[in-house]
Amino acid sequence: MNKYMKSMRGITVLGMLITVVLLVFVVVLGINLAPPYIHHFAVQDAMESLAKDPELKSMSKAKLRDMFLRKLQVNYITNIPADKLEVTKKDGKTALTLNYEVRVHLVANIDAVIKFNEEALVE
Fold first, then answer.
1. Is 78 helix (H, G, I), strand (E, B) or coil?
2. CA-to-CA distance for 107 and 41, rounded, in angstroms?
3. Is residue 90 part of a domain?
4. In this predicted model, what pLDDT tens digit does every residue of 68-95 receive, in sequence order?
5. What is residue 10's three-state secondary structure?
6. Residue 3 domain-assigned (yes or no)
7. pTM (whole model) above 0.85
8. What secondary structure does DSSP assign to 17-31, as a single string?
9. In terms of Cα–Cα distance, which of 89, 119, 106, 114 is closest to 38?
10. Contact 117, 95 (CB under 8 A)
């Protein structure tokens, strides 16, 4: 009988419970944190397309911000205010800089804060 018990191996109920809890936690994190990163890729595309616009150099900052917001609205991104977009000179070139953060509710009173910093040089 002792030989038989030593040869049996497998996962215990406690081990399975811990594995399931960890798996559920990872899935919840993935479901809640994926949308901000997907939106960030759309923000990157909007900034890059804006930086490639040949009329950008003659635009006012207000018009530039308005065009940026329109590009974001096409992708249903409404949580980034236009005043976060900064237009600066960097090494003799115009740079578009966007710094923003997104708060994501995870579980109970636990939130995640994701900070994004994007920059695009005007061509």
1. coil
2. 25
3. yes
4. 888 888 888 888 887 888 888 777 778 8
5. coil
6. no
7. no
8. HHHHHHHHHHHHHHH
9. 114
10. no
45/50 Cα distance (integer angstroms): 8
Q: For residues 46 and 28, what is the distance between their CA atoms, to the nearest angstrom? A: 29
In a domain, 73, yes or no: yes
The structure tokens listed for 92 are 């003799």
DSSP-derived letter for residue 60 is -
Domain carrying residue 50: 34-121
CA angle 101, 64, 60 (to 5 degrees): 130
Question: To which H or E segment does residue 40 belong?
Answer: helix 13-51
- What is the domain count for the chain? 1
What is the dihedral angle through the alpha carbons of 87, 123, 44, 59, rounded to the nearest 10 degrees? 40
Both tokens of 99, joined, read 């710094």
* In a domain? residue 13: no
| Residue 104 φ/ψ, nearest 5 degrees | -125, 125
